[in-house]
């Protein structure tokens, strides 16, 4: 399927009402986290911080599967259902590897523990091989990044040592 440039990446500012966003931030503080990598790595690469991040799967929680997804669904022009729903967390200077996602659409909702400061960095890098577009999206509180899942992307950890963990809620979605 061929997409127009503007159809492949979209940013929605302030997706959630303030009360819902505050609730989401609070819930993210109580998650059970596991280490994961963007690509297969050996143990030495993981210990050096190569492409490692923390993950917490929340697909079966109705709050994320129904409530938060309803806000995302309103911003997508086709019906979708989730393949995966999870939080990512990256420590300072732990960066992901370029990859594509399963499904049709990826939705990343930025969930900062403190109000985002531009000097932290922490962008999501996108490279669209189809359109040759390159983008660096800052992880601004409560912003939603929507993009076609075949776009190469990676998360960059915050760059400042005094910054908090970089956290986002990710939805891998398929059209229905």
Provide structural commentary.
This protein has 176 residues and is an alpha+beta fold. The protein has one domain: Sandwich (Jelly Rolls). It is 19% helix and 33% strand. It contains 4 helices and 10 strands. The strands form 2 sheets. The protein has a 7-stranded antiparallel sheet with strand order 1-8-5-10-4-3-2. Strands 7-6-9 form a 3-stranded antiparallel sheet, with no helix packed on it.
Give a brief outline of the structure.
This protein has 176 residues and is of the alpha+beta class.
Which terms would index this structure?
33% strand, alpha+beta, 19% helix, 3-stranded antiparallel sheet, 176 residues, 7-stranded antiparallel sheet, 4 helices, Jelly Rolls
Number of strands: 10
Poorly predicted runs of 5 or more residues = 1-6, 43-49
What CATH first level would be assigned?
Answer: Mainly Beta
Order of secondary-structure elements: HEHEHEHEEEEEEE
Q: What is the number of helices?
A: 4
Architecture (CATH level 2) name: Sandwich
CATH topology name, in short, is Jelly Rolls
Structural class: alpha+beta
Indicate the percent of residues in helices: 10-25%
The chain-level mean pLDDT equals 89
| Strand line-up in the sheet with most strands | 1-8-5-10-4-3-2
């Amino acid at each position: 399927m061929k997409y127009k440039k503007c159809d492949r990446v979209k940013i929605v500012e302030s997706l959630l009402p303030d009360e819902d966003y505050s609730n989401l931030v609070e819930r993210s503080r109580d998650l059970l986290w596991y280490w994961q990598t963007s690509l297969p790595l050996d143990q030495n690469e993981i210990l050096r911080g190569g492409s490692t991040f923390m993950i917490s799967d929340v697909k079966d929680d109705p709050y994320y599967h129904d409530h938060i997804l309803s806000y995302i669904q309103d911003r997508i022009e086709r019906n979708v259902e989730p393949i995966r729903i999870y939080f990512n967390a990256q420590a300072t200077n732990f960066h992901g590897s370029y990859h594509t996602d399963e499904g049709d659409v990826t939705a990343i909702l930025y969930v900062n523990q403190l109000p985002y400061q531009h000097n932290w960095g922490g962008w999501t890098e996108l490279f669209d091989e189809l359109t040759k577009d390159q983008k660096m999206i800052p992880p601004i509180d409560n912003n939603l990044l929507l993009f076609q899942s075949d776009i190469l992307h990676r998360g960059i950890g915050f760059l400042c040592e005094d910054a908090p963990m970089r956290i986002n809620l990710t939805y891998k979605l398929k059209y229905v």
